[in-house]
Amino acid sequence: MTSTMEVLISRDQIAEAVARMGQEITRDFVGESVVLVGVLKGACLFLSDLARQIELDATFDFIAVRSYGTRKESAGEVQLIKDVTTPLEGKNVILVEDILDTGLTFTFLRKLLLARKPSMLKFAALLDKPSRRQMPVEADYVGFKIPDKFVVGYGLDYAERFRNLPDICVFTEDEGK
Ligand code: IMP
Ligand code: MG
Question: How far is 139 from 124, CA to CA, in rounded Å?
Fold first, then answer.
């Protein structure tokens, strides 16, 4: 089996986009507090960089979901594995995700989080693959719109590997070789 790894978005481009997103969030919530809710595990690198670009009173929490399917495709069923511990009622909540793909995960999490009655719920996704969307959802803050390629690095995995790569790379595997 052969595989290739090609840089799609460099660490410098990531840093620039994360800084821009942090400025947008700072501007939108000036004078207010925010709760950043990261979706484990993919968003943890993005959240830790984004948080340092947000000049607001901010707290963190984390949520974890599992979606069934193959290693590269979600089968459409999302299950909660770990909930937040912060009460979200009346709070400005920003859900932080590595990538918005079919939109199934966000649709699931949005319903779950809105049931907690936050005063505001916004969605920040570092990457967006609009061509893959199955649900009519969009992110409020987007780093990059990317084509329908499977990417790894900067938190994103293939079977749990490659999350620690500093750049976002297109990962291609030639099955059966
Ligand atoms: P959605 O529910 O299809 O929007 O998918 C969101 C989740 O699918 C992300 O949090 C990722 O875990 C995973 N995902 C989607 N596309 C990719 C990719 O290109 N590389 C790695 N993970 C991905
Ligand atoms: Mg993931």
Answer: 6
Catalytic residue among 101, 128, 140, 148: 101
Ligand 1 mean position, distance from CA 101 (Å): 6
Active site residue 174: no
The two tokens of residue 71 are 């290693």
First and final CA of the chain: distance in angstroms?
Answer: 4
User: Residues 126, 47, 58, 114: what is their CA dihedral angle, to the nearest 10 degrees?
Assistant: 60
6 vs 151: CA distance, rounded Å = 9
Give the tokens for residue 16. Answer: 């620039």
Which tens digit of pLDDT belongs to each residue from 32-77?
A: 999 999 999 999 999 999 999 999 999 999 999 998 766 677 667 8
Residue with tokens 């821009």: 20
Q: What is the pTM of this model?
A: 0.95
Ligand nearest to the CA of 109: 1
CA of 172 to the centre of ligand 2 (A): 17
- Cα(3)–Cα(177) distance, rounded to whole angstroms? 10
